[in-house]
Amino acid sequence: MIHRKVALVAALLVSAASAASADEAVPLALPASAAAAPASESGAPVQQDAQAQHIIRMADRVRAPDQPFRYSVKLSEFQGGKSVNQQTLDISMRFYKFSERALKGDARALVRFVEPVRDKGKAMLSDYEKMWYYAPDLRRPIPISKQQRLIGQISNGDVVAADFDYSYVSQLQGEEPCGKTTCYRVALQRRWPFVTYPKIMYWVEKDTFYPYRADFMSDSGVVIKRSYYSDFRSELGQMRPHRIVVEDSLRKDNYTTMDYSDVRYESLPDSYFQIDYLMRLN
Length: 282
Known about the structure:
By secondary structure, this protein is mainly beta. It contains five helices and 15 strands. The protein has helices spanning 2-5, 32-36, 50-63, 98-101, 164-167; strands at 69-79, 82-95, 107-115, 123-126, 131-134, 142-144, 149-151, 154-155, 168-178, 181-190, 199-205, 211-217, 223-235, 238-248, 255-265. The longest helix is centred in the first third of the chain and has 14 residues, at 50-63. 40% of the residues are buried.
């Protein structure tokens, strides 16, 4: 199946731009309409926790920049602790300012398939709400689902809606030990139906705002998968995670690693993030 060969990794999860330190950082400003009355996917108003929103925004800037960038990601699937599948992608991200795309169009991703060699020429495009896939044997790009499983525990939506502040309403649940430090525990509820996961429980280190763990859940609160952020190294002037391990909710020895490299700023023209451009990549 074409969809099972598709892999998209995006901003959620990558190294990013320089930012101020935690003590100096100033929360980003949302449009007045959004800040005044955030709503769930049902349209009912949901009270936004200001402290939780600040925590999420700071963690978002650790994971991904707020300006155009490019990176490579290697996906490795493990079953029973043994490597069974790998894929490498070259991804360009373009973030739009509020004045350009408001809340629902904050990011576009252009994904080029690099390895295995048989996948060269394939590409994907995301404009935040929708996604398309193209291969040389197709006449036109075709729409794909964010919920479709790609490789191992990774689905399409895992790599597009990387900015949790845009996609979710957040509530601070408290603080608790995580590893060798203390984390904020924040509950996230999606703002719109096209966001891949209805709920996320998110742990963010208190002193650094580094993301530590994320539990992706169904509407009923069942954990679908669990992600751990690690290998923090200096990138573009700031410490950032270079590895994400995504565990199967039932078997911890079934997992997928996402390893990031060659992260750099790159500003591509808007024309690169159009459906027709996918057919010109070859």
